[in-house]
Specification:
single chain; 2 domains; Rossmann fold; alpha/beta; about 375 residues; 13 helices; about 45% helix; seven-stranded parallel sheet
Length: about 375
Amino acid sequence: MIKKKIAISVNNSWYAWNMRANLAFYFQKQGYNITFICPYDKYSENIKKYFEYIDIDINTKGTNPIEDFKSIYKYYKIYKELKPDIILQYTIKPNIYGTIAANILKIPTINNIAGLGTLFINQNIVTKVAKWLYKFSQKKATKIFFQNHDDFKMFVNEKLVQKEKCDVLPGSGVDLDKFQPVEKKYDGKFRFLLISRMLWAKGIEEFVDAARIIQQKYSNVEFQLLGHLDMKSPTSISKEQMNIWVNEGYVNYLGISDDVRIEIANVDCIVLPSFYREGTPRILLEAASMGMPIITTNNVGCRDVVDDGINGFLCEVKNSEDLAAKMEIMLNLTDEQRNIMGKAGRKKMVNEFDEKIVINKYLESIEGILK
């Protein structure tokens, strides 16, 4: 019996390996041949050890229409040669340009609209073009998954998608076996940690401002930042700016990590004051799964992870004072109260965000389409 081919198309190999490998391993065990299609970076070597891999050269940040037209042709060439039975696509450019290419070749696609990033924060001409491209391309998709109900409702209300071909997932889910609760050893210093790409829209500045406010009142508190400084993005925090904040003494920048469990286990609270148009932030799922209390914004995607006052706190978007107020409440809880919050977070992940829920929905859709 010839194995069916699944292609997984993403805009970078880091995302493919860290966010989609578990899904791919599961499909592999079910007897499917898996091919990842994404631009090369050091994580591509991890992918190559277990799956077929095809490099694609696309400008993930650019908005040049000529370059984007070339992207359609690149996807077309790869899909035509590979001849997959179905294509799973993630992130904006594969979702749009990959779908157009696949449709020409009559290959079914399952798209995952995992947050809309900075594109939909400021409504401008680029946003209008993006909405038109979504509307044009998603008509040609076979199935569309969203990672939160806010994005799903917006796309349906603005008639960018056909409601009957859509479904909502609990984010990308969390590996409950990998991200397990750890026993916290308290050493007299309270640590807040923000894990994210270092983008302004992730609320980095608000985190630093809140750190200033808290440290004027408390001396036993530390504020840490972990994540990529993406110098190619115009929305990224610069190295110079990060150095200024670090030199002021309010925050410590930890760089990057290939296993965030280590950093999560060494802190007391995970913070994400994002005003980015999130899907469902993976880091919040992982932190909650490890029994860590959370502070995040009452923002699209973020609020899905936190029941306010139960497994963490929600703060106002772009409000450093309110963020600091929630941090102060967290700081003044007893160890036992924070442990109860952490246990509530773990329970929520088990009941609502288990990665197996996502995998089963994908498998059900793939089998239905291929039949």
